[in-house]
């Protein structure tokens, strides 16, 4: 299966130039406020930033006093993230890792369990999320939280077919060099994978573009309870 990596390697420089130090309106105004509330970062929290892109949220976490391991499967993206977040090299460890590969994910284990994990705008970009949710059960401490933000599947499905898995080509940023893969899966599929891996849901938001009445993203907080 094409994991979409080739497209992200080609788009990495464009993504980093566009998102810059501060990220874009979408991330700052729609994603970040609710994510930040749900994550409730405390000084000293040990946090995993999943599919971190150019590390814009990793930097925010570090500014709040967290210790961060941040990963992405695009080597180019990680090179750019390391360069851009140089000032935070004491607090952020960037790694190349594929979220679909269970064994690679377990190599992100350090000498303490993670308190929190975050995946901003990435679940719909990841070809298979089962390994990720399963590995997170091992990587997070009991009662630890995993917050994820994804396109809202109920309002973004292709071909008038909500329940069937689908891979669509699309763009995250207008005029990006190549189209990327979006992996559609239903809400029940995502939630059931979470439940099967020892998580419960204890926070949920549906966020529209400003002035609109249909959500574009959903933000979910999972808590490890077994
Ligand atoms: C839309 S970007 C979001 C980046 C960042 N989380 C943010 O909010 O700025 C999606 C990211 O997912 C990464 N990605 C996609 N599939 C992945 C996988 N299997 N493992 C790790 N990263 C992946 C891409 O390389 C890209 O950086």
Termini Cα gap: 32 Å
Strand order of the largest sheet: 3-2-1-4-5-9-8
Overall average residue pLDDT: 97
Largest sheet: 7 strands, mixed
Radius of gyration: 16 Å
| Global shape | globular
Beta strands, count: 9
Beta-strand percentage range: 25-35%
Number of helices: 7
Bound molecules: S-adenosylmethionine
Structural class: alpha/beta
H/E element sequence: HHEHEHEHEHEEEHEE
Name the poorly predicted regions: none
Summarize the structure.
The protein is of the alpha/beta class and 226 residues long. The chain is built from 7 helices and 9 strands, in the order ααβαβαβαβαβββαββ.
What is the topological layout?
Layout lengths: L4 H15 L5 H15 L6 E5 L5 H8 L3 E6 L2 H10 L7 E5 L5 H5 L7 E6 L10 H10 E12 L14 E5 L9 E5 L2 H10 L2 E10 L6 E10 L2
Parallel strand pairs: 1-2, 1-4, 2-3, 4-5
Antiparallel strand pairs: 5-9, 6-7, 8-9
Helix pairs in contact: 1-4
Question: What can you see in these coordinates?
Answer:
The chain has 226 residues and is α/β, with parallel strands linked by helices. The chain contains 7 helices and 9 strands; from the N terminus they run H-H-E-H-E-H-E-H-E-H-E-E-E-H-E-E. Strands 3-2-1-4-5-9-8 form a 7-stranded mixed sheet, sandwiched between helices. Strands 6-7 form a two-stranded antiparallel ribbon. Helix 3 links the parallel strand 1 and strand 2 (67-72). Helix 1 (5-19) runs parallel beside helix 4 (75-84). The longest helix has 15 residues, at 5-19. It is globular. The model has no long low-confidence stretch (mean pLDDT 97). The structure holds S-adenosylmethionine. S-adenosylmethionine (SAM) binds at residues 3-4, 8, 27, 51-53, 56-57, 72-74, 77, 98-100, 120-122, 125-126, 172.
